[in-house]
Amino acid sequence: MFNFTRHRLQRSWKAWMCCLLLGHFGLSAFGQGLFANVSEAAGVNADGLHHAVAIGDFDRDGREDIYVGTKFAPNRLFRNLGGMEFEEVAVPAGVADDGTTNAVLWADFNNDGWLDLITGNYLNPNRLYLNNGEGTFTDATDTWNAGNAGPCRSLHAADIDGDGWLDLYVVNINSHNAMLRNLEGAGFENVTFPSGTVDTGIGMGALFFDSDNDGDVDLYVTHDGNQVNKFFRNNGQGSFTQNAAGVGLDYQGNCMGVDAADINHDGWMDLYITDLYPSELFLNNGDGTYTAIGEAAGVDDSGMTWGCIFFDYDHDAESDLYIVNDYAFAPTSNRLYRGLGDTTFAWVSEGDVVLEHDHSDYGLAAGDLDGDGDWDLAIATSGSPTQPGFQILENLNSSGHYIGFRLEGTTSNRSAIGARIEVHFDGKIRYDEIHCGQGYSGSSSFDVHVGLGTATSVDSLVVRWPTGEYSTHGPFAADSIHAVLEPGAEPWLTYGCTDADACNYEMAATVDDGTCFFPSAGLDCSGEPLPDFPTMATHSVARIWNEATLLSIRHDWARPTVHARNLWHTSALMYDAWAAWGEDTIVGAQPWLLGNQQGSYTCAYEGVPEIEAEDRLAARQLSISYGVYRLLQHRFANAPRAERIATHINTQMEALGYDTAWHETDYTNGTWMERAASLGNYLAEQYIAYGFQDGSFEVIDYQNTYYNPMNWNLVMDEPGNPNMFFPNRWQPLQLAEFIDQSGNEGSNISPDFLSPEWGNVQPFAMTPADTAQFERLGSTYTVYHDPGPPAQIDPNAEIGLESDYKWGHTLVALWASHLDPSDSVVWDIGPGAFSWNGFLPDNIEEARDYYAVDGVPVAAGVEAGHPFNPVTGEPYAPQPVLRGDFTRVLAEYWADGPDSETPPGHWFTLLNYVNDQPELQRKWRGLGESLAPLDWDVIAYFSMGGAMHDAAIAAWSCKGWHDYVRPVSALRWMADRGQCADPELPNYHGAGLPIIPGHIEQIGPEDPVELRGPENEHLYEMKIRCWKGPDYIGVPALQWAGVDWIRAREWWPYQRPTFVTPPFAGYVSGHSTFSRAAAEVLTALTGDAFFPGGMGAFPVEAHEFLVFEDGPSMDFELQWATYRDAADQSALSRIWGGIHPPIDDYPGRAMGEVVGMDAFLLAEQYAFPLLGTDCFEAGGYPCLCPGDFNSDGLRNLPDLLLLLVHFGEAVDVGGNGASPVLDLDGSGDVNTGDLLGMLTVWGQPC
């Protein structure tokens, strides 16, 4: 048992506060002070024909939420924010049912600990929404057979057969009611007729309760139209007998709602029925029969009464009764009856305008909506010019004590619906039951709530669980809610499948029982084919295995360097397998590792016999499949979700018809098919061996061997940065919990620097000429394409924004103010406006212009946007989008790819996207004959893989050596020091933050207490107007943090609190390097700077795409005209994400430009050895445009830079020298003649 202690508020002041909020000062408006109408202040008084209401804590944050059923309009879900404040979240939660709803119900139908939701609709089928456990729901109506077509009037749930699962009873009007038996969480079965609960009357309301104290739930159903109500006695095991006349409940009238309570404390449940003139109270005679006492009890209301609820509003230990009327139909007010303890009631709401509530009220529910210990009322009131809309009446009671119990079943249904409780205190006993759906179209809190009067403790609690078993608990202190677990069994689903990727994942399971199973390759969990999944009928075998590699990466630790290498090795292996079965001629493709020496590793190869031309494709498919399959088996054997990966690749081999038991590596013997399979196994063996010695330290799981951080940890949950001793150097982060970008929970809450020694790894196209060597603490760092040191800060110098360090890091904070769509700033993000043609700043001065404060780049000499689509000849359509939506989507989309395949994998997904476009012509560099799909894919992956691998080596070699600080460390460190703008102002320090009015300022006396602190302890500290951080997001699927002033010492980047910033240094940005390199490869590969058709696009769905928080608020597309446009957006996204300042970005882009083209040219040399030396005359190769080395249609600076990088190198067609493409004068090396030739055609288009 656990205790949820609640502070006992003094309520004497609350009536006056609510009165002031409502603008009322007299008793005539406020009533007698029992309840206050707080609907407007709570944010729930929405218009609409509201008819039903259910209270329940759907997000398990300890606060009761409200779902409202509405006719002819979408339903509303009000999430409780605390302090009697709500936000409407039905749309992002996925439960905005617009099916003309008459009834709603929270119930945990699948026993996973999260309340599910069902709506009872009048004109449309009912809908069942299963709770996903993260603020959203999945419509499971069809799979659960829950779509009874009604027309529905009310919904009720109980475990009718004692099997531990909640069943559902649907009350329909003018159609037979339906009893749906729960098939142990697998769906519903209609058992209306076999259960004996057939009812074809004008059904209105119902209640499951134990009428005869035999331990199972009976059922009472009310009827309109002057029809007789029905009572169904449970015979045990879920069969019923109708016997209303036999027990005295054959009441005839125009009845609506019904509720039960033990009003005389004899242990037998009594029944109240609402009616049109009058309502009736039935007293249980102590044997399951009843006597009508409504008139004698003083509760024979004569209005058109709908909802009703028994609850103890004043905590005097007696059951009180509130009923609601349709005042427009019959002018009778709602009534609150106070129970007097002798089966009579006093009408205490007369003259109280709050409680009388003269409106059209229908559904009614009760629960503790403000967390103060007493129950408040929620009323489904119509909203119109004459009606106030949905209503909350807040209980202002300040007398008596209470106790609450939150029961959880283990053998019983998880919410313990149907449990009977006895509360013993001060010589008294009070009885109650837990019902799911009561009154009319209402469902109240599942918490047990008992008033204790003057008692301050409870002696004991006796629970008769729905299984019939009893347990005793206590003693308990009053004025608290106590959690009580059903003894004798483990909580529901403690054991089960805990892998979220599994088909049988159990969200509530905490211990994996080994039952997880996963979908086969290309199929969903039902065995149905996945749309667009590549097969041999639609794609090449290379594409199939590239997708398998990407899936494997998504289920491994998120390690960009490691996975760039995995993508390279699988791509190179596929290329070698493809090349091995090509025609053995000098002009044919040359293998890369197979039969060659790479670095210090030699791969022996005896060649394969020539085979028939018609068998060549099948041989390539066999070798590629066995090779990549074995390599993936090895590389991902220890992945955190290895079982998911193994299932996919094993079933992929099975789908291809290949025998995974074939392990032979001797490719010189057997049939050609056996030799082809063996060659694949041999290639995997060789790539594994090569990987063990390539400098990555794969044998020790890529661990560091000499790098150590200079700074101690930054503890993210604590303000400031007291452990930053070297403000220019990287700092590890310490998190409360670490979960990487792929969703894997790490055991180390302060992750180590990933790959600071990656400069030691064997590259593809980079050479020793591209390196610089540095020494630190006796260790050597090899750096490729070193851009020089990043901007530094002297902690003792007095300097402001002229410091490039301060400018760069504060710009990150300034751009964080763009992350709120409520600021209404709109940008045109279409390619016609949001593009700068791949512009790269040459220096820090250009960078200061380019990275503008408002987020819109300014590129010197470059006009923004593309004037027209070169394919269609038409201008690009504008796409106006809220800036706060666009920037957040960019930050998340590019963070690690839409499916967390890390940045290098993300660019492979974009390559596959390009390959799937019908407008694509598979012509190398856009010239010559079209290549076969397998040929194109293999060479494209070979080029892209080499580029991503080299980009990782180059970027991480810089990261390891320069070891540069991240913005979160720098900003918090500067904030600790204060402000650097004015020595005459308080809290001055030369190394502090600059003051930028409207963006970065000092906290002043006029600031709210949340900033300056209750004792002004934060006065004159620094504040930043930016994204507020994860503390302002309760349920990410439903809320966004927004932008406002925060204390600078508590700044967060736009990331999850379990991740915050990647665990490696910032300079240079890996995203910038990967993206520009990939863009160069795609441009050269296709011979076109533009996406096929002139535009690439990624659709973004409102309230669905974002993961860090709710959003975006609108549907739109990410659109790119050129590959460089996409790369530029990727680079800029990291500033909005709070991950990189500009100094990390543009040097990374420049590095990627060179790395990408070098990799492409070298891949081209292997695949097309004579390209650039002979055109069509010798080898059938297309003639290239001289000087346009990157095939973007222009001869400009990027081409000149490539020529200069390789100046002085000899040309070699075997891949060991400069590309023949660069040898413009045919001299055999890259020299002055080539430079002059380049200058001759400079600036001329091809």
Can you walk me through this structure?
The chain is built from 25 helices and 58 strands. By secondary structure, the protein is an alpha+beta fold. Mean pLDDT is 92; it is low at 1-31 and 1175-1180. The strands form 19 sheets. The chain has a five-stranded mixed β-sheet. Helix content is 24%, strand content 21%. The protein starts with a strand and ends in a 6-residue tail after the last helix. Strand 11 (152-158) and strand 12 (167-172) form a beta hairpin.
Comma- or semicolon-separated keywords:
1246 residues, alpha+beta, five-stranded mixed sheet, four-stranded mixed sheet, 24% helix, elongated, disordered N terminus
Lateral arrangement of strands in the main beta sheet = 6-5-4-3-37
Oligomer: single chain
- List the uncertain runs: 1-31, 1175-1180
Q: How much helix, percentage-wise, in residues?
A: 10-25%
Q: What number is the mean pLDDT?
A: 92
What is the beta-strand fraction?
A: 15-25%
Overall, the morphology is elongated
Number of strands: 58
Cα distance, first to last residue? 78 Å
Structural class: alpha+beta
In this structure, how is the largest beta sheet organized? Answer: 5 strands, mixed
| Radius of gyration, CA atoms, in whole angstroms | 36 Å
How many helices? The count is 25
